[in-house]
Write the structure tokens for this entry.
Amino acid sequence: MNHRVTGKQPNSRMCLVCGLKNPYGLYASFYELESEQLVALFTAREEHQSYPGRLHGGVTTAILDETIGRAIMMKYSEGIWGVTVEFTTRFKRPIPLNTELRVIGRIVREEGRFFEGTGEILLPDGQVAATGSGRYMKLPIEKIADFDVKDQDWKVTPSPSDPHEIPLE
């Protein structure tokens, strides 16, 4: 089933996951869906491998963590960010390189300064390759890091390939 895209989140300059000028980055793009889920689209390359042709487990965890942690931005816009407190990854299938993958993240519980989320990486045929769950603290960026929006190139970068709908099955 296709889900309608309602917005695109910003990318930065050097983030491992979303940095558009990081030569070793994933260059992930993040799309907000009408179903209140966040989807990252990315294609892992050889520099992201562990076993030949397979995505490294640490990189798998990083993209799941980033997608779930960013889901809170759909509710609070750019005012609140998610800082990981704990995270668990379960690996179900090998994740191939050089293939566009979908990562889904959602908030499942929110209480005070904390929230919990879950997510999965989907293979092109819809099979779940890995799942993640985490607990995060909600913080404004100025309490996390010295973050200059202009210096970090933190902005939405439109692309002709941005989807209007994304399949999640």
Remarks:
- Residues 2-159 form a domain with the Thiol Ester Dehydrase; Chain A fold (CATH 3.10.129.10).
- The chain has a mean pLDDT of 96.
